[in-house]
Specification:
Keywords: 4Fe-4S, Calcium, Iron, Iron-sulfur, Metal-binding, Oxidoreductase, Periplasm, Selenocysteine, Signal, Tungsten. This protein is α/β, with parallel strands linked by helices. Among the domains are: 232 residues, Dimethylsulfoxide Reductase, domain 2 (3-Layer(aba) Sandwich); 136 residues, 3-Layer(aba) Sandwich (Rossmann fold); 142 residues, Barwin-like endoglucanases. The chain contains 22 helices and 29 strands. The strands form 10 sheets. The chain has a 6-stranded mixed β-sheet with strand order 23-25-24-29-22-28. Helix 13 packs antiparallel against helix 14 and helix 15 packs across helix 17. Bound molecules: ligand MGD (2 copies) and molybdenum atom.
């Protein structure tokens, strides 16, 4: 989230599109309802009438997979009706920048951008650039009228997205579409705030990333980023999924969103040089220019004293990926399916039920030599060898189960969607033989290291040199129990030497050896500081000579009334509650909306440190310097090299502006927007197990999958709870009354849902919540299924199996998240 949960109460219009917060993020609803009590409006755009829709002021149905068409139409509506926040986009976005004259977009190239290579399914992005002046700064047209400026190119591309055309694609009735546009665009004035809540309804598509980008562009056009009650808010999934991405659990990032080194980045200097953005814009803070300090401090944290200036701080020990290599979920299971892995740790997951195309995943598990399930319980993954259709005699995989204790039985931090790192205490001792994950990792580490020390192996250095100072040691040197506070402090980082400011004479001591570093601005590139994750530097600091865990704070003060609660736990970065908060003020530093001031620049008050006039008041200011319009002022989008937000965003695989493409499996022969039916840059696996079916009479209905409040994920933690199972006992398929009639299927009947990949049993839920869509003068039916079930429990099989037996393994072109929200199925009586 750019903002945070409580901030939802500050909105005037809340758009729940791509998420169902009432069912899946009930706490968010508390704050949404708080906003509604003050007159705010809630809009819900979802293929079916969800629990959020039931509480909404305005509900609009949408055919799954067509959100870019819907949002593209909103962009066009905002532009043609002059509803954008002009001062904001001219000063704080790249709307005025002139683009390379050779750049061409979908209106010129029938759905493509310039630079497309059909054989590689990839773009050469050389024309997706800006025109530069002689100082190397993008040329701007502040009147926004130059035909090559971002604003005009935007207008040109989305002029094709007329309400009539959009309604024809999405199946959203024209009047509902226009009502949503009108209400949401009303937040384009300085005194109104609009926010967006999304989750898997947007991301699980071959165009998932561009769905989110389309909305980000709308939020910028309306001046809704950086303000209280605004933002782009990813309602994240598991309680600590924000934390897990912050700590680099994805293959392409290290902790703190530093890129994973690849084979071409041969040494630390090259890594820093190639991954640190440069700018000539004098008003840009360009925060990522500090990358060198963060990566060096990270290397010092993981390799400790073994990391020295002479050995490049151990950079060569870090694992490198091949250039262009992708090691995301679908790719890994594809490799496993091809027999390229010996072993697999399924750690806190249940891929036999959660991964797309479960038949392929389950077959892949059978090609392993060994599988370790680290989990609270046995599940469909650990027991795949005794699953439906599997003959245990044919399986050679040796399976181990390591029982793990639950979150209640261990201490540590979790980071919620609002970026709040919150400390939790152990409630009870672990039950039975179960142990905390960290203790299992600890044992594993010492065992593996011992083997490397004894036997050498191909390349022992990365393991042998790891620093592992997380608690008391036994006589053999092994850590007895991992101390979560020792880990949290290492993540924050230490001064490893006395550090001086050498710019003043005589040099002034800024940090004492052994002290915790107070914030990332003090991290160094010469190995004198450590930090396991620069973003969390400031989460565990020194106060009166003693370490203080900021994440354990429980202060309830809220002086602004905006719900910032700055003394409650701790928020990254440096306890800032709303990121890009300097975009909430005008270029002179005064709040755009004086009734909802998040920040303001007090030009006369003296700064406590420098003694000079001018201080920021309110939330923790984003980046240094005064307001953008003042002398030596800085632009608000500090993570962007240009200092402004990207309406034109050349970073993604499929183009700088989102363009509507159909889902890989769709009900339409053609995309009425262009000749490109599907996203031209997605990876298509060529295995029989991954067959795809569009416009195939055998699979005529759009299928989607979602969650219910009563179950959690693959249901391993909820299917065993009899009171939850009683409320949602089994897999169901929700369909319209019209489709039920057409198929002769009554509510409550058992049916079989099939796709090109498999079949699953379900109970028919014939309801008013789905309505047939009118798409391009034809009728398209959509059905929906929850994905919480599996064959293992209930033991009598009455819950039926996972709906991921149906889903395709195709992923978003940027993230490779599977397209579990739009694919083609059939339904027949059992
Ligand atoms: N009770 C409960 N809560 C949970 C979870 C759980 O399993 N149970 N899981 C957690 C996790 S890990 C996550 S990631 C989040 C997910 O949170 P959500 O994204 O809210 O979860 P879903 O129910 O999968 O999907 C949300 C909505 O998207 C709609 N949808 C489907 N296709 C489309 C489309 O093309 N466009 C649009 N606009 N909407 C579409 C569905 O009808 C559904 O109502 O929930 C978290 N919260
Ligand atoms: N069709 C379809 N498929 C989907 C989705 C969808 O919307 N539709 N959503 C996707 C999403 S958003 C997600 S996040 C994935 C989730 O995919 P998975 O993570 O594979 O599924 P979970 O059921 O959440 O598995 C978590 C496991 O961790 C165990 N566990 C709980 N606590 C602990 C602990 O402290 N330590 C350890 N070691 N184990 C623990 C639980 O018992 C459970 O077996 O599924 C994805 N799959
Ligand atoms: Mo998730």
């Amino acid at each position: 989230m750019t903002n945070h949960w409580i901030d939802l109460k500050n909105s005037d219009v809340i758009l729940a599109m791509g998420a169902n917060p009432a069912s899946n993020h009930p706490i968010s609803m508390k704050w949404i309802m708080r906003a509604r009590e003050k007159g705010a409006k809630l809009i819900c755009v979802d293929p079916r009438f969800s629990q959020t829709a039931a509480k909404a002021d305005l509900y609009a149905p949408i055919r799954s997979g067509t959100d870019i068409a819907f949002l593209g139409g909103m962009i066009s509506y905002i532009l043609t009706n002059d509803l954008y926040f002009k001062e904001y986009i001219v000063n704080y976005t790249n709307a005025a920048f002139l683009v390379n004259p050779d750049f061409k977009g979908p209106s010129d190239l029938d759905g493509l951008f310039s630079g497309y290579d059909a054989d590689k399914r990839k773009y050469d992005k050389t024309t997706w650039t800006f025109q530069m002046d002689e100082t190397g700064v993008p040329i701007k047209d502040l009147s926004l009228s130059n035909p090559n400026c971002v604003f005009q190119l935007l207008k040109k591309q989305y002029a094709r997205y007329t309400p009539e055309k959009v309604s024809g694609i999405t199946g959203t009735p024209l009047d509902k579409l226009l009502e949503v546009y009108k209400l949401y665009a009303s937040t384009g004035t300085p005194d109104r705030a609009g926010t967006e809540c999304y989750a898997m309804g947007w991301t699980q598509h071959t165009v998932g990333t561009q769905n989110v980008r389309a909305m980000s562009m709308i939020q910028l056009l309306l001046g809704n980023v950086g303000i209280a009650g605004g933002g782009i808010n990813a309602l994240r999934g598991e309680s600590n999924v924000q934390g897990s991405t912050d700590y680099g659990i994805l293959f392409h990032i290290l902790p703190g969103y530093n890129p994973t080194p690849n084979a071409s980045l041969v040494d630390l200097a090259t890594y820093i040089e190639k991954t640190s953005p440069k700018t000539n814009e004098p008003k840009s803070v360009n925060w990522w220019a500090h990358r060198g300090k963060y990566i060096t401090s990270y290397l010092k944290a993981i390799y400790g004293e073994a990391a020295t200036k002479d050995n490049d701080f151990g950079y060569s020990w870090m694992p490198k990926i091949d250039v262009g290599m992708n090691a995301s979920w679908l790719m890994l299971f594809d490799k496993m399916f091809q027999g390229q892995f010996d072993g697999f740790f399924a750690w806190g997951q249940n891929p036999a039920c959660s991964g797309a195309n479960a038949n392929k995943t389950r077959t892949a598990l059978g090609k392993l030599k060994w599988l370790v399930n680290v989990n609270l319980f046995d599940n469909e993954t650990a027991s795949f060898w005794r699953g439906p259709g599997v003959n245990a005699k044919d399986i050679q995989t040796e399976v181990f189960m390591l029982p793990c204790c639950s979150s209640m039985e261990k201490e540590g931090s979790i980071t919620n969607s609002g970026r709040w790192g919150q400390w939790r205490y152990k409630a009870i001792e672990p039950l039975g033989e179960s142990r905390p994950d960290a203790e299992i990792i600890n044992d594993l580490f010492f065992k593996v290291r011992e083997l490397y020390m004894k036997e050498g192996g191909a390349y022992p250095d990365p393991v042998v040199n790891l620093s592992w100072e997380y608690g008391e040691k036994d006589s053999s040197g092994k850590i007895k129990h991992l101390d979560p506070h020792a880990i949290a402090k290492e993540i924050n980082g230490y001064y490893l030497e006395d550090v001086y400011d050498t710019k003043v004479d005589p040099p002034k001591l800024i940090g004492k050896k052994g002290d915790l570093v107070p914030s990332f601005v003090f991290l160094q590139m010469d190995g004198t500081t450590s930090s396991g994750n620069w973003l969390y530097c400031n989460s565990y600091i020194m106060k009166d000579g003693k370490p203080v865990n900021m994440m354990a704070r429980r202060g309830k003060e809220d002086p602004t009334g905006l719900g910032l609660f700055s003394n409650w736990t701790w928020s990254w970065p440096v306890n800032r509650r709303i990121i890009y908060n300097r975009a909430s003020v005008d270029p002179q530093g005064q709040p755009w909306d004086p009734k909802r001031p998040l920040m303001n620049w007090n030009a006369t008050k003296l700064d406590a440190k420098s003694g000079k006039p001018g201080v920021w008041e309110g939330d923790v200011v984003d980046g240094g310097g005064g307001p953008a319009g003042t002398e030596k002022g800085k632009l608000p989008f500090i993570m962007k090299p240009d200092g402004v937000a990207s309406i034109f965003g050349p970073g993604l695989a499929e183009g700088p502006f989102p363009e509507h493409y159909e889902a890989l499996e769709c009900p339409l022969e053609t995309n009425s927007m262009s000749k490109q039916r599907i996203n031209p840059t997605i990876k298509i696996f060529n295995d029989q197990a991954d067959a795809f079916y569009s416009c195939d009479l055998r699979f005529p209905y759009v299928g989607t999958t979602y969650r219910v409040s009563e179950h959690w994920q693959t249901g391993v933690m909820t299917r065993h709870c009899s009171w939850l199972l009683e409320m949602q006992p089994q897999n169901f398929v929700e369909m319209s009354v019209e489709l039920g009639k057409e198929l002769g299927i009554a509510n409550g009947e058992t049916v079989i849902v099939s796709s090109g990949r498999g079949e699953v049993k379900a109970v028919a839920l014939v309801s008013e919540r789905f309505k047939p869509f009118k798409v391009e003068n034809t009728t398209v039916h959509q059905v929906g299924l929850p994905w919480h079930y599996g064959w293992q429990f209930p033991e009598d099989g009455s819950g039926y199996d996972s709906v991921n037996l149906l889903t395709p393994n195709v992923g978003d072109a940027n993230t490779m998240i599977p397209e579990s929200k739009a694919f083609m199925v059939n339904v027949r009586k059992a």
